[in-house]
Specification:
By secondary structure, the protein is α+β, with helices and mostly antiparallel strands. It is 62% helix and 11% strand. The radius of gyration is 25 Å and the shape is globular.
Length: 430
């Protein structure tokens, strides 16, 4: 009688991760993102949009959440000119989708130590194919045209005189959306494998899990802790000071945009921005005050402190969060690893994390209308919003913070790691 090894029994117990499981994973991710976007837009008042545009705006929000490109277009007739552009990622929607898809991807792989590269590639490929199909359907649905009101102004009088009826619309750049959507889902699946302690890896990659996985896990914990803390503060403010719908909209659409920006500022990073016209930013009033003006403003600790000295507490909050993340990283690392190695791993991980925040946290938006040369990007006829980081200084400061936090976290976690090693040894001996 043939003996069945424990590994064989474990493999047979795993449900086959085929097309049905891939469909459930992709549908769950898209539904979660759609519901989050819909609730956030509802709280922001988007249900009042004309011509039944709300579902199309929800689709556009999901598309932009995965890096898709939405093109704005304007039409005001032969005697008028329009300009419009928008680049922003609603990171709350992005985060929800990433968590749901990552969980669905990892579920069939649990309870396994090793998996072949071909097996993982096949499972990820099924999800990617179905993801692209779903994203393609959303991209086709994300298009709409609105007619604008000129209000009571000289331009309005000219519009009535010459029969100018300005319109603005949006549509998806389908090829670019599919490309960036594919890169997004690939990044989510790779990060899921890196972060999950129980997910299997191909044999050739097992040697990297002791160094990469603890650092990746610590960075995900850091980012999620920032979002949880920001959401808690937002809910408390909404309950005590009002503005509940606006706060809910920020939480459901752009909370990571806000708290991850704040994280980098607390590390000493500098962002440059400008807010003109009716545009606004989903952030505390003090940030809007710094940025609103004619010239590009500098957003950092010193400029914010001129309006509210309490922003210096961001440095202390960041220090506590980074030290906690470094402790988690060191506690999950092998006991043989030295403190300087933890410091180096933390520096690289935090630098890459801040780089990701800077690339995904950029915001640009503008709209302008002129009739016979009258009117521009200012006033009620248009506006401009800009927010971009000083990239390499932010990454460099993050690396320095990572070195210090990683070293201190290793010292704090030293007793914990030694205890874990001793318990493992005793269990193996028994």
């Amino acid at each position: 009688m043939d003996r069945v090894s424990p590994r064989t029994r474990s493999d047979q117990a795993i449900a086959p991760h085929g097309w049905v499981q891939a469909v459930l994973t992709v549908l769950s991710g898209l539904i979660a993102m759609g519901v989050t976007a819909a609730l956030g837009l509802w709280a922001a008042g988007a249900t009042d949009l004309p011509d039944g545009a709300f579902p199309r705006v929800v689709a556009a929000t999901v598309v932009t959440a995965v890096g898709g490109t939405i093109r704005l277009s304007g039409d005001a007739g032969g005697l008028a000119d329009t300009q419009a552009g928008l680049t922003v990622i609603p990171l709350s929607v992005t985060l929800v989708g990433a968590l749901v898809i990552a969980a669905g991807f990892l579920r069939p792989l649990r309870h396994r130590a090793v998996a072949g590269a071909g097996e993982l590639a096949g499972w990820a490929g099924r999800i990617a194919v179905l993801w692209l199909l779903g994203l393609f359907a959303l991209a086709l649905a994300a298009r709409q045209t609105f007619q604008l009101s000129l209000g009571d102004s000289t331009v309005s009088d000219l519009g009535d005189l010459f029969g100018v009826s300005p319109k603005i619309g949006f549509e998806t750049d389908v090829p670019a959306t599919l490309l960036f959507g594919l890169l997004w889902v690939a990044g989510v699946l790779i990060l899921a494998l890196l972060v999950s302690h129980g997910a299997p890896l191909p044999p050739r990659l097992l040697r990297f899990q002791a160094t990469v996985r603890p650092a990746a896990y610590a960075m995900v914990v850091l980012l999620l802790a920032c979002v949880a803390l920001g959401s808690l503060i937002g809910l408390v403010v909404a309950l005590t000071r009002g503005h509940a719908p606006e706060t809910l909209a920020v939480i459901l659409l752009g909370m990571p945009n806000l708290v991850w920006l704040t994280l980098t500022i607390g590390l000493g990073a500098t962002w440059n921005g400008r807010v003109e016209g009716p545009f606004g930013l989903p952030m505390p009033h003090v940030l809007d005050e710094v940025l609103r003006g004619k010239d590009t403003a500098t957003l950092d600790l010193s400029t914010l402190a001129e309006y509210d000295g309490r922003v210096w507490w961001l440095v202390a909050v960041d220090a506590v969060l980074l030290l906690a993340a470094a402790f988690v990283m060191a506690a999950r690392s092998p006991a043989r690893m030295r403190a300087w190695q933890h410091a180096l791993h933390m520096a690289v991980a935090l630098a890459l994390t801040v780089l990701m925040i800077c690339l995904m946290g950029r915001i640009t938006a503008h709209f302008g209308l002129s009739v016979l040369g009258i009117g521009d990007l200012g006033g009620d006829l248009g506006g401009e919003l800009l927010l971009k980081p000083e990239l390499w200084s932010a990454v460099g400061l993050a690396a320095l913070w990572g070195l210090v936090a990683g070293f201190l976290g290793a010292l704090l976690a030293h007793p914990v790691r030694r205890t874990g090693e001793a318990r493992t040894a005793r269990t193996s001996t028994a």
